[in-house]
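During the reporting period the student researcher (J.K.) took over the structure-prediction task from the postdoctoral fellow and processed the backlog of single-chain submissions. One of the processed entries is reproduced below for the supervisory committee.
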Amino acid sequence: MSKTILITGGSGLLGQHLTKMALSANYKIKWLGRTKQNTPPEVESFLWNIEKEYIDEKCFENVDYVVHLSGAGVADKPWTIQRKKEILESRTKSTALLAKYLKNNTSIQKVVAASAIGFYGLDTGENSLNENAPAGNDFLANVTDLWEKETDKITIPTLKIRIGVVLTEKGGALPKLCEPIKWCAGAALGTGQQYVSWIHIEDLCRIFLFVLENKNLVGTFNGVAPLPLTNQELTKAIAKKMKKPLFLPNVPSFVLKMILGEMAGIVLGGNKVSAEKIIQTGFHFEYDTIEKALLNLNI
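J.K. obtained the following structure tokens:
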């Protein structure tokens, strides 16, 4: 019999891709979200209201696994005080609500919850970080730390994936990096030496399904490709794939800070994050180099 996965945040970029992959692998999929808009016909959709602490409990019927992806986009809007609160609470409150409803559930076998490499801090230099590295002390590190603490309260066997920079042509960081390069205005950001721990969206979704299917895996895993790049190396690789020149000087840090404010730390900082733990489980990356990843993507 095919297994059933309940996905929170299924309508997001990662959720949609994971849904397609899981359906093609003969899983049944349910979504849990704030609305039922944009739900594929093959997917059964249910509602929750995080502010009112309500979940339609029918969503849990005959479910084998839960994949928890909900959370407001970190770089979608300026970091006002209200937006920062939304970024935090969309993660912590949704996770706490899920933990509450799953407390007495005996049928669900495993929960896989999204986290982020922002846990380690915005700028950790050239140190290679494994899953035992401590949390940072900036805004995103604090958000991720609190988010994971709520995840740890889930009583069902739970696994966390600390997600890196996800590469897909359909959204996220890659189209934003490609746009100035397309107009021959591309350049590395800041020093260009800050590390970008990236992953192809296909490999990330494969990690989620891989850890679901391996019953003995619990704990925390970094969701990144094996070979992180500096911002300058990534920019050059994208320009090469697009057959565009790079001749402009790096964009100065102060300019990015003027434009983006505190949010500039996302692109000016960097993490060199290790994928060794997930590799040791037997997981194989289809896109282990940036060249393979970009070749597959329509940019």
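The committee noted the following: The chain has a mean pLDDT of 96.
J.K. will present the remaining backlog at the next meeting.
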